[in-house]
């Protein structure tokens, strides 16, 4: 049998681009099926710098789209497992991501398998539980709450917020909602058990949005204390 040509010998050792990364398509589908609807699994082909496969698409990307954004988020490919790290989806939802680098034994990487986990529902549930447990503690409440109906007190606080900024409740933008929640949190009003649904109804937004603004306000508070 004639010896294999040098060209054929090299091509036999080198991974083929699309075929090799697509060997992991069933792995991607299995992970996505187990954690659906919260997890997306994306396979990237590093030879073409394009997406080769998506299981449970929550990012609205398509096969063939560029992988450059993901590569920028990941950074170095020196290790076989990268993360977890935080990403932001197209709709603003926060994702917890981890990446497996696909490579031949001791060889250069030729693909990535990225698992993107939508953590927002879990964060909202955590915040709701934190609200309930915080109410049972001995946290200080505004003194005015003991002098009048809490709804009237909250209404007065909202009116003060609007008056200082020259705003109308019906014309509040998203950033105004966040600012109002932050102001009420600073004054301790979220110790009131029913404030979240009451505020959501007044502002015409969902409870989830109120919890999201509250989480961001508390993160700012923690960061301010740290500095």
TrEMBL record:
Record-linked Pfam families: HTH_22, PAS_6
Signal peptide extent: none
Domain YheO-like: start-end pairs: 24-126
Keywords: Plasmid
Keyword check for Transcription: no
InterPro entries attached to this UniProt entry: DauR-like, DauR-like_HTH, YheO
Domain Transcriptional regulator DauR-like HTH: 154-215
Protein known as: Transcriptional regulator
Source lineage: Bacteria, Pseudomonadati, Pseudomonadota, Alphaproteobacteria, Hyphomicrobiales
């Amino acid at each position: 049998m004639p010896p294999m040509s040098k060209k054929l010998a090299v091509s036999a050792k080198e991974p083929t681009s699309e075929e090799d990364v697509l060997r992991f398509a069933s792995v991607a589908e299995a992970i996505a099926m187990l954690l659906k609807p919260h997890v997306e699994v994306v396979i990237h082909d590093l030879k073409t710098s394009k997406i080769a496969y998506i299981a449970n698409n929550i990012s609205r990307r398509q096969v063939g789209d560029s992988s450059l954004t993901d590569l920028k988020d990941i950074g170095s490919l020196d290790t076989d497992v990268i993360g977890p790290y935080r990403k932001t989806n197209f709709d603003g939802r926060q994702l917890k991501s981890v990446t497996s680098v696909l490579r031949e034994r001791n060889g250069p990487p030729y693909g990535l398998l990225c698992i993107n986990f939508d953590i927002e529902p879990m964060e909202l549930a955590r915040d709701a539980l934190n609200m309930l447990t915080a109410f049972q503690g001995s946290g200080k409440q505004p003194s005015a709450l003991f002098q009048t109906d809490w709804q009237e007190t909250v209404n007065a606080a909202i009116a003060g917020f609007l008056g200082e900024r020259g705003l109308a409740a019906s014309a509040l933008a998203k950033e105004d909602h966040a600012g109002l929640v932050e102001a009420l949190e600073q004054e301790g009003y979220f110790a009131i058990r029913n404030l979240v649904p009451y505020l959501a109804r007044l502002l015409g937004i969902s409870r989830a949005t109120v919890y999201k603004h509250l989480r961001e306000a508390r993160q700012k508070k923690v960061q301010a204390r740290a500095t």
